[in-house]
Structure formats: structure tokens, C-alpha cells
Amino acid sequence: MEVGKPRVCSVGRQEGAFQSLSLGLFEQVLHKHLFRHFRRNKVEIASAITRPFPFLMSLRDRAFISEQMFDQFQEACGNLVPVPRVAYSVLVELEKTFSLSLLKVLFSSTNLTAYPDLVEILESFLNGNQSSQWCLGFKSVRSSIHSS
């Protein structure tokens, strides 16, 4: 060993790599599970959305949908297309770029307050799954509704 150079422990690097690999695999499995649950519950989610505000605006403001898509969805609502049907079309588009941050916006305290039927759907995402709760940043559904 050269003088003045720190000694590197290869075992520590291997353990760290294993932990990173395990965490990465865990995140992939969790993402896949949440995506599948999202896809299977689009109708229920859309049915809970009863009016465009704040659903469409929060998605536009956070760049989940473009201004052009926002205008198209708003126009559809204005043309008397039922809001849940428009919401379903939005969710179909969002499915293409699904992310955990989308779920955080979808189940934000603002949306949970505006659309109370979303609470039960959020509970289905979190029910019995501590990993989902941690990943989505919720301690409990009830506390997420009351926190801003």
C-alpha cells in the first residue's frame, strides 16, 4: 500500500452495490405494482372526478398534461361530455407516462378534499402496503386529507 493513500475495502463496496441493487429492484417492483393498480382502477378514479377543477388544473400546472391537452379536455367538458368520461381520457394519456409523482398529484390533499370518492381509491393503493405508503409519502389517508 502506498503511503498517504487510504485503504479501500472492496467488501464494503460490494455490500453497498448489493444494497443499491436491492433498492433499485424494490423500486421497480413497487412501480410495477402501483402502475398495474392504477391501470386496473382508471374507471373508478375517473368516476370519482365530478368536475374539472382542480383535477385538470393541477395536472396542467405540474406539466403532466400539455396546455393543448388541457384545452381539449376543457372543451370536451364544455361540449357536455360527462366529466368522468373526460377524466378517463386524461388517465389513459397519463398511463403512457405513469410515475409515482403522478399518484402524489392525483391523491393530493386538494384532490382528496374536492373528490371524496378518491379517498377509498387511495386506501386501495395503500391498504396493507407500507412500501406504497412510504413511497407515496402518506402516513395515513385521513392525515393526508387534512394536511396542506
UniProtKB/TrEMBL annotation:
The UniProt entry, under PROSITE patterns, shows: HSR
A GO CC annotation given for this chain: nucleus
Q: What transmembrane ranges does the database entry give?
A: none
Q: Give start and end of each HSR domain.
A: 14-130
GO MF terms here are: DNA-binding transcription factor activity, RNA polymerase II-specific
One of its Pfam families is HSR
Query: What PANTHER family does the record point to?
Result: NUCLEAR BODY PROTEIN SP140, NUCLEAR BODY PROTEIN SP140-LIKE PROTEIN
Name of the protein in question: HSR domain-containing protein
Query: Organism source for this protein?
Result: Sciurus vulgaris
Q: What is the lineage of its organism?
A: Eukaryota, Metazoa, Chordata, Craniata, Vertebrata
